[in-house]
Amino acid sequence: SLKMASDSPESLMTLCTDYCLRNLEGTLCYLLDNETLRLHPDIFLPSEICDKLVNEYVELVKTDSIFEPHESFFTLFSDPRSTRLARIHLREQIVQDQDLEAIRKQDLVELYLTNCEKLTAKSLQTLVSFSHTLISLSLFGCCNIFYEEENPGGCEDDCLVNPTRQVLVKDFTFEGFSRLRFLNLGRLIEGVNVETLLRPLASLAALDLSGIQLNDVGFLTQWKDSLVSLVLYNMDLSEEHIQVIAQLRKLRHLDISRDHLSSYYKFKLTRRVLNLFVENLVNLTSLDISGHTMLENCTIPSMEEKMGQTSIEPAKSSIAPFRGLKRPLQFLGLFETSLCRLTHIPAYKVSGDKNEEQVLNAIEAYTEHRPEITSRAINLLFDIARIERCSQLLRALQLVITALKCHKDDKNIQVTGSAALFYLTNSEYRMEQSVKLRRQVIQVVLNGMESYQEVTVQRNCCLTLCNFSIPEELEFQYRRVNELLLNILNQSRQDESIQRIAVHLCNALVCQVDNDHKEAVGKMGFVMTMLKLIQKKLADKTCDQVMEFSWSALWNITDETPDNCEMFLNYSGMKLFLECLKEFPEKQELHRNMLGLLGNVAEVKELRPQLMTSQFISVFSNLLESKADGIEVSYNACGVLSHIMFDGPEAWGICEPHRDEVVKRMWAAIQSWDINSRRNINYRSFEPILRLLPQGISPVSQHWATWALYNLVSVYPDKYCPLLIKEGGIPLLKDMIRMASARQETKEMAR
Hints:
- By secondary structure, this protein is α/β, with parallel strands linked by helices.
- Among the domains are: 33-148 and 180-186, no CATH class; 469-611, Leucine-rich Repeat Variant (Alpha Horseshoe); 613-750, Leucine-rich Repeat Variant, CATH 1.25.10.
- A 10-stranded parallel β-sheet has the order 3-4-5-8-9-10-11-12-13-14. Strands 1-2 form a two-stranded antiparallel sheet. A two-stranded antiparallel ribbon has the order 6-7.
- Helix 8 packs parallel to helix 9 (271-280), helix 14 (435-451) packs antiparallel against helix 15 and helix 17 packs parallel to helix 20.
- The radius of gyration is 35 Å and the shape is elongated.
- The protein starts with a helix and ends with a helix.
- 39% of the residues are buried.
């Protein structure tokens, strides 16, 4: 089912929501006075649509860096007569007091505010307007919502020093929230009296008090007939707590887990405590005791363990107290406890660190509210993906993607998550992944690169991109990925390994793509960036992969793109070419890349005069004799000269070397090449070669062009014969055979 889920296209509802949010002005809204969004007066939307618009908006602002948040977005939902809201989930910095204030007339049933640190006590007052309809409320991590600003009276100067003092609100309670059943107060600020706050609530069904320290929880018994879910994550427990919990007989879900790294806990779990839970909480289907130290041995001696297949039957349980369960638990949290490694665990789903299944269950259960635990679980998944093979690949990928999206600013999750993605997307898993899933991976990788300048994250993200087919799979984010890579390469201090991977990616991205892509990337400063890298390497006198990739990238980006060729010349590219030639006379690969690039420059008629100097022409002529990289360097040098010769004798504005002498050397070079040479070059179009055929001004250029075509179509007929026919090469060759000025051997070859 997971395979199907990740493959199926987005629903029409999702596509429309996304489109409207990205084009609010063109769809649902108009701009008032050029700044405020207003809903068109004839629009009426039910809660099914409005909820989705709001929840997707929050998601987009959080996970899509290109998406621009709107100041007045929430005001679109201020009038329940035209827009209805019922269930909304808001997160983090996206939401402020005035946003909640804007929707106060709505009859909200469910309001989740997660880590909304900008909300203050003004929003507590706004909550009161939802009190008659609200059933579910989460204030998880809203650490300032119980603070109000108090303006100090008196002197003006003092106001400047300390404009606002934060004061804890003591008198707010849930009085009047008559329908409230589900409440999450996780990570509530210290100093708020939880008991007073909650006392007015008649019948709570679910309560989350994660990360709150309460010495006395006796007040919980007022809901012993209604409470079915209780979460006390990271609360330091005592015998009193346990006695109270044992009285909450309706509980189906109990979570007393903790982060064993966060602080010192006096409390230790014992066999007696677990027995107490099993005996008293007869409806229990889910229990989480992750992170706890067991004070005594709760395990059945291995001699008595029933051998054979692992079983979830309580009667066979390796954990003694759980033998008293009436049926297996739906979920049992044992992450970072010794119990998860036992053989028979009476639960359908177990979170732990024993194997892939347990680790994935942990990531799934803890991602939203416990990033500190999730990052350690993802780290375990990373080891599984690296050393063994993942058997639940799609689930693993989706969980890591969700964690990375959910915790964009959490360094630990970004580091471990990006590392896990590298192993989960490599080639052995390739077949199992849909286009949609692979695109989601690319999106979160680019998000990571954007928000984290941290070396490890940058390296992991770049390495992960190398697992994709480039440029095809990155085409849908082409601009963004190039901007991010150039940004990495333009940083003054650089990590060698990241630099190497980033240059390799840049090179791959401009290889075999359309000219408009190349022009766009050129305008982003690509040419300049590569020349700066070359300059740095020259100064260090090193010719490494970065140097070779940079020249190769320049060769690719100037292919049939005159603007980029011109940039190369304007930024002293020729000076660097000569210096590299002089500094690294033996580097064949380098010479080939540099001359390939100059071939592209020479194809641009307006730029050729800049190549017409004694120094350049001498260098090109001498390279005709080069044996570097087979015939490639000699071939490219001859190509550059062929284009220059094509401009005729009157364009030859230098005395030395003499034009006829260079022509002679060109004939000699072409005749020395083996016509069956296998090639290290890739033509997307023959147009620059074909334009040298119908002319009589330079027979040697005609010959070079004919030789090039003959070699390519005879060595690689499947690839190049169709290209030659498609681009109209046949009639051009036929015409040339009839030309008086063409040399006999050229005609033979053409025939």
